[in-house]
Amino acid sequence: MERLQKVIANAGVTSRRKAETLIQEGKVKVNGKVVRELGVKVAQTDRIEVEGIEITKEIHRYFLFYKPRAVVSAVTDDKGRKVVSDYFTDIEERLYPVGRLDYETSGLLLMTNDGEFANLLMHPKFKVEKRYIARLKGIPEKVRLRQLERGVVIDGKKTAPAKVKMRSFDKGKNKAIVEVIIHEGRNRQVRKMFEAIGYPVQKLSREGYAFLDLRGMNAGERRELSHHEVKQLKALAKFGQ
């Protein structure tokens, strides 16, 4: 159930504020009856008319997308670079990314047209875990990784504690692969965390988001989330993992 004015706005008829005015003026009907009170909630099956014209209610869509590197996490780009929406041109609904992955970072990105769902997952107080795999120049000592676990200062603010695990390293090539799990979503956070301890990231991928992962997928591919997965994500965001 959603508020009537929100449903009208989501259908693209007008803004939410204008929808409220139309409701108060008696120009909106729900199942044939005029509704003048704000805050009335309607179901997906309710028939809504605005100034005598029945609206088509927006259907919410939710996708898991494997973002390739060198793709912008946006629907447009003023520099003419490839954007994530280029991979959804066959979808009727206008989708946008939930949060961002920077241009050079690949991996798991959620796409939706449900603003409430996106805001829920991105709100700082909701601690949805995100798992990254970083390929580093150099092999960090355990004491350095513990710094990340406790939190390091980036952009003048200390990061929340992270979960960090060395996956592998190659002394000959002086490289390491490290797994990092965080629940924050600050700009280029993982890259800046490793820079703070003196080990720049050469390649970065987000491999997991809450219980979701990229198994069986290649860069540029997508799949639609199930109703159960969407419910799980909402519950995790609200009540913790």
TrEMBL record:
The highest taxon in the source lineage is Bacteria
Say which enzyme class the record assigns.
isomerase
Q: Which residues form a coiled coil?
A: none
User: What Gene3D superfamilies has UniProt attached to this entry?
Assistant: Alpha-L RNA-binding motif, Pseudouridine synthase I, catalytic domain, N-terminal subdomain, RNA-binding S4 domain
- UniProt keyword Nucleus, yes or no: no
User: Which cellular component terms (GO) are annotated to the entry?
Assistant: cytosol
User: Where does the RNA-binding S4 domain start and stop, copy by copy?
Assistant: 2-59
Recite the UniProt keywords alphabetically. Answer: Isomerase, RNA-binding
UniProt record, GO biological process = enzyme-directed rRNA pseudouridine synthesis
Q: Which InterPro entries does the record cross-reference, listed alphabetically?
A: PsdUridine_s_RsuA/RluB/E/F_cat, PsdUridine_synth_cat_dom_sf, PsdUridine_synth_RsuA/RluA, PsdUridine_synth_RsuA/RluB/E/F, PsdUridine_synth_RsuA/RluB_CS, RsuA_PseudoU_synthase, S4_RNA-bd, S4_RNA-bd_sf
Record EC number: 5.4.99.-
**Pfam families under this entry?**
PseudoU_synth_2 (PF00849), S4 (PF01479)
What Gene Ontology molecular-function terms does this entry list? RNA binding; rRNA pseudouridine synthase activity
The family this protein is said to belong to: Belongs to the pseudouridine synthase RsuA family.
| Identification of the protein by name | Pseudouridine synthase
Lineage, top ranks: Bacteria, Bacillati, Bacillota, Bacilli, Bacillales
